[in-house]
Amino acid sequence: MKCSSLPLLLLALASSPGISGGQVLVDSASNYSDLFGPGGSEVTVNPPDSLIGLTVGGSKSGDLGTYWKAEADGGASLKVVVGVAETGAQVALNDGKLQFNISNNESSILGALGIGGALDLDWSATATFNKSGNQLLLAPNTTYQLTFDVDGSNGLLNSTLGIFPTFGVELLDGNSAAVDAAGGGKLVNIIGLELLGIVGSPPYSGRAVVQFQTGSTVASGPAGVRFTGSALAPATVLNLGTEFASVTNLNIAVVPEPSVLGLAGLGAVALFRRRRTA
């Protein structure tokens, strides 16, 4: 009887908007365990053909797995008398990760660009968290934290290679509009973030932690996330490998307001003490 008010107060706090909000959050290890599968799904640029010689360009878009829509831009095709060598930007799901790749059918295309030549490559992948019974529905005036692991060991996140890389993430509302980032703007540039070290992770890799803040109103409908990347890649860089970056272990969670929790906690303690001393 003396302690009954404390559990009731904590229950009321747990159900208040901005702390749980009633929405289902995203965890690629549990309620969205199929987010990075099935393997072997890809969107790959097929460069334009020519009668003979080198052509550059091309784009491709399409669905990727169950939740993603991907777009890739940039490629090259070298047609000679005995065959064709091609390379192009690619977004793929393989080995439980979202990959931003270069697709080569022959390594000879790397040298075909010549000295000073480079490919302008762009990648985009957007997931909508619309699984029945587990939709991500954003609440107003709420901070959301995204965490995910990044592997950029093959070059995309290495800005010292002279490829002018970009790699960013956005949180999208129910209308696919970008939500404000907690630090300003809407697109968070992963390059330049201090990634949290993961034991055994390769260079230019680690865990990214970013936050977004909704306003006083937010569009209804399932929310999503979008990753975008680009690079100006010369042949001398392409031979480092064909996987420029990959993303795994995505999690989206609500960040409780410290002031609300702190004040409520003090109130609960004070109430508990009054009950005990009454």
TrEMBL record:
It holds the Pfam family PEP-CTERM. The keyword Signal applies. Keywords: Signal. Residues 255-276 form the Ice-binding protein C-terminal domain. Transmembrane segments: none annotated. Residues 1-20 form the signal peptide. The keyword Signal applies. InterPro entries: Ice-binding_C (IPR013424). This is PEP-CTERM sorting domain-containing protein. It comes from Luteolibacter soli.
